Structure formats: C-alpha cells, structure tokens
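User: quick one, fold this
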Amino acid sequence: MNTRLEAKEFSRRSSCMRWPTTRIQDSLTPVLERRVLPEHVGCVHIIGGTTCRVFPSRKNIIRGIKHNYDFPNLQGRSEMGATLARICKMIDETIGSPVPEGLGNKSAGDGSMLIIVSNGNEFLTETELPETWDEILKFLDKVTRYWSKVLFLSSDDYERWGLDESWGDIMSAAMDQLREMDFPVFDMRQWLLDTEPYIHEGQAMHTASCDQVFEAWWNELKRLVNLMGHHWNFARYLETVTYYEVYRSYALPETQLPIG
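Assistant:
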C-alpha cells in the first residue's frame, strides 16, 4: 500500500520554547506573518504584573492594544508589583467575572488562550520559592480546564531587569518547574530588546506609554497567538493548519499492515 502523509513542517525546540536562535526564528517567519483570525483563536486573556502597564499613566496595555490594533477579542488585567500568587488570584477573579471581561465560570471555548506575564516580583525580596508555591502550581494545573491554551511570557534576564544573578537563578528554577508541568514558557527576549530604548525614568520594569512600546506588545502577541494557534494541539488544530495550508506532503515507503 502506497500512502502519503500530509504533515506540518515547522521548527520548534519543545513545549519550553524560548525566543530563539536566529535560525529557528527565520524558519518560522512565513508562519508568523500569517494572521490567525478571531474565529480560529477565540478569546485571549493577558494577566500579569508591572510589565503589563505603561508609564507614567500606569495604565493597562489592554486598552491601547485593542484600540490601536485589530484585536477586539483581547481581554485582561494587571496589577503593579503582582507576584505569581497574586496573578493566580486575578485569574480566579477572571474565571468568576461576567463575560466578556471574564468567563462567567465557564470554559472560554475552543482556541482560547491565557497569557500569564510573570517576571518574578516575589523574588525581589525572597531567596527561595515561597511556601505557597505548591498551591500555586496546583491552581495553575486546574486553570487548563478553562482555556484551551495556557502559556507564560517571562524572562530571567537579570541584567536587563537591573537585578542580581541570584534573582536570575531562582527565577530560572521557578520557570523550569512550570515547564515540567508542560506549560509553554516563552522568553520575552525580543520584547525586551524592542522596549529597552523606552524604559521609563531608569526603571527597567517600567516602559513608557508610546507608540513604540504598544507596537512591541502587538508584535509579541502576534508571535504568541500565531505560534500557539498554528502549532499547539487543541480541538481545531487540523482545521487551522488546513485553512492556512501550513503543511506539506511527503511520500512514505510502502507499509505492510499487520493481519489479524
């Protein structure tokens, strides 16, 4: 029997993908330039800490992105100095809040996505994982019931954040535990490079409220949404890759199927 397999050709490192080597990023460019339509993605929530605010207004990035770019199904919340424990509380509040800002205690549906932006505020004063860390991990495991895809956007680049190496070590250890739970943890390296010229008043975790910063967020979200939409396994995965024709056909050798 001659068979042909329609297989998706793409390059990625693993579910722990980091923003990446030039070779990997170049290989993904054709896919990143495509646009995943709202009906294929579903609602997208961003929940995080200080990084998700702009200064000096201290406003959430959500409104600026929704109004400046074509991203009507984007929702989210943030809080200055939020630790991962506090972010989990905001996620819980989002689950219970009415639609559209929240989920109304229901699943967000096929193609939905939760982006957790966590950059180690708890480790600014702690040298070890907090006592509540196991509870945090258990809660995050349950969150996957509500969104099709749950991912983290983070960075342990202590030099860029203006912190010491010990912070970077514990931040790396925390993110590795999330990866061991099969959460994709994306390194926001490109966002850090894009926003570095727009740090507000010397505070490395504060970015200015300007077009360049919103554009950096928009580009980062496009990367995340398209990568997760095209490459992550969820109920409408086959429909999505078929719609965008992001696959190729390969001839396989003749296969003898077992009998009986």
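User: anything notable?
Assistant: The two ends are 17 Å apart (CA to CA).
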